[in-house]
Amino acid sequence: MSVALARTGSGRIVNRPRQASISSFRSTSAHLSPPPSGISPAFETGELDPILATLDISHLIQPITEVQANISVERACEVLLEKKEWCVAVMSQAAGAQPVCTGLFDFSDANAYMHLAVTANSLTPEDLQNDRISQIVSSARLRKEVPVELACNLSEKNPLVMLRNDTSLTTLLEIFSRGTHRVLVEGPEQQVKGIITDGALVKYFASNHDKITTSPVITQVISTPLMDLGVITPPPIVSASPDSTVLDAMTLMSREGVSSIAVLHPGPDVGVLVSAVTVTDIGQLVIPSESKSVLSMKLAAFVSEIKNPHGMVNGEDLYPVYSVLPTSTFGYTIEKLLATKVHRVFVADEPEPNSPPFGQGNLKGVVSLVDVLAVFARRLGIEANPGLMRTSLSSPSETSMSSTPRVPPDVGSASPSRPSTPIHQTSGTQTPKSSRGMVTIEDQSSRLPFKKLLVVFLSLFVCLFVSFLDQTSVSTVLPAIAHDLGAADRINWVGISFLVATTSSQIVIARLSDIFGRKLVLISVIALFTVGNLLSGFAQTAVWLFTARAISGIGGGGINSLCMIIMSDVVSLKERGKYQGFLGAAVALGSGIGPLIGGALSTAGWRWVFWFTVPISIACVGQLWWLLPQSELSGNFLEKVRKVDFIGSLLSLASIVLILVPVSGGGTYYSWHSALVIAMLSVGSVLAILFLLVEWRVAALPILPLQLFRVKNILIIYTTTIMTGIIYYCNLYFLPSYYTDARGFSPIQAGVYLLPLILIQTLASSLCGQILVRTRSPKPLIVAGFSIWCIGAGLQSTFGMNTSKAKICGYLILQGIGVGGTLQTTQASVGTEHRAVVTGARNFFRTLGGAVGLVVCTTVKNIELKKQLREISGLAPELIPKIIKSGPQITTDPSVSEAVRSAYAYALKTVFVLFIPIAGLSAVLAVFLTPVLLPGDKDGISTTKNEQEIALESIPVQHASRTDLESQAEGIEKQDKKM
After folding, report:
1. Could you tell me the domains of the chain?
2. Which of 100, 386, 613, 856 could pair with 370 in a Cys bridge, judged by C-beta atoms 3.0 to 4.6 Å apart?
3. Span 186-200, pLDDT tens digits
């Protein structure tokens, strides 16, 4: 990759005259006023000023220049130069939608992009696993233009922060004093109204300090020397020698995450400051093109030409000086920062007589705009941590050179994800805005070498397999458990407790993995699952067992979500569908063979059904502990705890429990009309509404960001998730009922005839993953999968007393193909920052759909069954409730028994008919999904018009446990006694 100068093809530096300003001068005595007499310069942290607390940011808003996401990086650099802007907003617009800001682009990003392009040959295979890097490098090698959206925040210095117009000035000061350089301001309908930079806020405070605060502390600080304020960041400072090249400077700025470096001549202490090179200098002159002459230029020559383009102009030296003295006042330093339009100014002693040309004295440190704002913030009683973002974005400064580029995080998509609402973003990730302040989510993507990936994948596969096997195997030992523990009238709570715990914990656990790291949370939930099963095996009472199953349910729900999330973290977007298809096969296998394994283990005693999973789970923990990368998330434990949405989590858990418990147990232990059931449903509904309000307006890091529902694809996905959850969960309960109650099959036969659906679904899931890798187009698979599923559901509705076994298997095979087609391709239009939450939410909605669907379908079946039973001559009316509860086997008259089985077949057929419109509506909704083209091996950019910014997260269908769900159905059947 070659590089040339801006708007030239000759490799010649283009002279651009500068306006005379304070940037042309060194400090003089006029700027060295001491603090007022009697006032100590060592000012302590103050209290929040009452006047400042009433001000908002509306008067600081400035217009922002917008560029389209698909323009080239080169053109974006030209816009920055032409408009003399600090940065531009990169806008994307989907078909029929309002344009939205996908990120910010400035010269730091341009420097990172150019450095990446010119050092492409030194990248390692691991580096190229990063989707963004791969696309930029492949485009550079093919001499293709790279869209600016790929370079948004490539330097990791431009977190996308959107604030409301009425945000307080103190909130803005707090955000800037923690390292953010600029924020966007939200206009009507979540559009960008304007921008506020840290420089603008510094200028405002410096110019209006006597008007915005009643305290003289700011005035005192303005006139205080730097050395008395303790604001100077001492060495080591990122620097280079005059003999270093421009490429060396680019490498340092990219690797260390800084916007400027000091050019030092060897001397006492750190060295003599000659000048500074900034990303703006690089961006003004170097744009990828045809020449390498500038890259190989020595910094001494580069500085000489770009800093003094015309020498003396009208007797005035326009040479911009990027340094101040330790004795310079804080106010003068602010003037210097604003005049040179840089984020950092260096602090150096007065030059010695023997200093090199343009020398500025021995380097003592650096002061940045963030440091300035941190001083203001602390003096005004606002918490400030200027090192927070600096620590997370850069490694310790060194003066040595390295050709290894600073690799940005993998955004997991062809382009930066598209925010549809105001967001915060750091290191390529986004979090919802909140009135409580800014909370960031860090990308945890970590591409693994193939051998390590294979072992991690197998561990995740086994975890999912064991989790679902545990759910389905328990059904075979429920009678034995009921007998041993004396819990025949309460045995359904074995399933209900597991189901409620699984459903209520999934969203919370997904968000906890964003805060504390995937590895820690996954190992924790596997440990919970293991402890729960161990305790279940030792249970001596029914309450003990129900509690232990709830613990296992929390762990199982976390395993189900986190395995999918982690698989997305460790493989590229291109490979994601394939691997998650294999994980979907683990889910299907665990669900399908669970009853068979449970039956085999039951001969040794029901306790072994629970203990069987313990050693397997421990082995998985060992493998994942050693092989799964540790997420290096910023902040200590207490800082992470503060990010947790405790109010939302408690409201979520309480509302789900209060709704699912009566839905699951109503009709079994309490009448649907009982005060307890009505009260629980009412309170649960109120808490659910409060939960939504908290997530919308209060939570800084909501466990369920409501703005996700504004994205069309996500809304469609969640809707189809609920509906397909209804079908799949009900099939796992009603198909065995059809086999045993209507056809008279044995339990073993019922399990065998469920395998065509499970096994074919497993194969179809894996096959569709391979197809997706090759076609890269998920929408056709989505539509085809739901359509085939709908056809299979229609054929299933013909099941009757005389349907041949071949037809049963054939129709279920067709459904299995359809279900398998939706496992990998039912995806969400989000980027990495919402991957965990979307996965947890999908699992929750699917389980919720199954729970509610089972209630509705069981009620429909019971109504029709009661109607059919009443028409059977010779059947005593008092037997009808018993038949509905226990099945047709309680009848002894062969002719009556056959009629009862026929009634069961007809009632179940009514339920199967309900599946047709549900599957059909899912297929129709799938047609309206926005089409996307996933990145391939050679294509750098998705070619789907106006949809390049959409990143899809593959999340397989979760298979319901018959054990967990049949408890609800049996409870509803018991309610029929009162019908």
Report:
1. 3-13+20-27+45-432 (3.10.580.10), 450-645+699-978 (1.20.1250.20)
2. 386
3. 777 667 788 888 888
